[in-house]
Amino acid sequence: MATPENNSTLRRLRNRYRLVVMNDDTYEEVITFRLSRLSVYIGMSTVFVLLVGLTIALIAFSPLKYYIPGYGTRESRTALQALKIRTDSLEQAIRYKEQYIDGIRKVLTGTTPSQLDTIPDVIPKTEPTIE
Predict the structure, then answer these.
(1) Can you give the pLDDT at residue 112?
(2) What are the extents of the domains in the chain?
């Protein structure tokens, strides 16, 4: 069984109202509409969906999409990827050079830790040459 609140809400949505547009000087009716709250809601929802759809279509199928941040042409994306790879390799080269300079600085200042070489040097014996 329907509750009274639900029934009154449904009735309010279906009640008919009259919207009259009148001329202010002559009080003549220019146009008359018979509307309900439900029809106004459906009409406004339809207009909203159409406006959103048209806006999306305008952006998707026109050059306006290139003004959206993060969207670009295929050529710009490939160029950006090549620049990123090049930048990474340059950063790695800089790190290697900094390590090299730090090693030289330690050797020149004498702050290198003295480590014993654990690999024995094998010197081949040469036969004495007879002259």
Answers:
(1) 72
(2) 1-68, 73-108
